[in-house]
Inverse folding.
């Protein structure tokens, strides 16, 4: 188990639009670009096996900027295909704040990072005491029906608060900026409120006035 004191000051980062990793959650990835194959190889040689997931933050005249907050994941599963690609799983460890990007000789990007302010990420699973699960599941049912999506509803109903909210935040098809808002939510209840707002916004075609909280 990684301890807060063991977190490194620099991280390799994977700027993948729309890919959200949250603490204590798992993100499957398909690695095939040479620079990211090198990143994975280098990461596996370190004690923590950490990779930072960060949303790109393109602005006028630049498509290389990064958002200031990302989440580090530990490589907990990996397998190699016959043609040299990798299927890996990152398990979310902690969010971080990007301080500077490090210039160097690696083909992938690296950043100096600050872990301060994200202590709860390495603690116990969070509870959401204000969570009205029945109303939430009804809303989710309308969303899945509107988008012709299927789900294992029994598994969703039995999942604990954090697993349910975080898994949906990662899996549902929201815009990258919306994913960033879910990442930056300071606690589980705020993330759930943000998730509900996004679902209702999508159901109403972006014109709803009321939000289920």
């Amino acid at each position: 188990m990684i301890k807060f004191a063991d977190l490194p000051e620099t991280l390799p980062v994977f700027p993948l639009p729309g890919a959200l990793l949250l603490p204590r959650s798992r993100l499957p990835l398909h690695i095939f670009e040479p620079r990211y194959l090198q990143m994975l190889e280098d990461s596996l040689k370190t004690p923590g096996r950490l990779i930072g997931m960060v949303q790109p933050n393109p602005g006028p005249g630049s498509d290389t900027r990064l958002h200031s907050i990302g989440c580090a994941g530990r490589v907990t599963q990996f397998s190699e295909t016959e043609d040299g690609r990798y299927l890996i799983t990152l398990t979310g460890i902690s969010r971080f704040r990007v301080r500077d990007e490090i210039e160097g000789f690696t083909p992938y990007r690296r950043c100096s990072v600050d872990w301060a302010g994200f202590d709860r990420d390495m603690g116990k699973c969070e509870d959401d005491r204000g969570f009205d699960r029945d109303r939430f599941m009804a809303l989710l049912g309308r969303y899945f029906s509107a988008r012709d999506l299927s789900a294992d509803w029994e598994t969703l109903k039995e999942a604990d608060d954090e697993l349910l909210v975080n898994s949906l935040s990662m899996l549902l098809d929201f815009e990258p900026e919306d994913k960033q808002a879910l990442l930056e939510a300071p606690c589980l209840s705020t993330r759930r409120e943000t998730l509900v707002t996004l679902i209702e916004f999508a159901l109403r075609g972006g014109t709803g006035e009321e939000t289920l909280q």
About this structure: Helices lie at 34-44, 133-146, 153-158, 161-171, 176-184, 188-203. The longest strand covers residues 86-102. The chain has a mean pLDDT of 91.
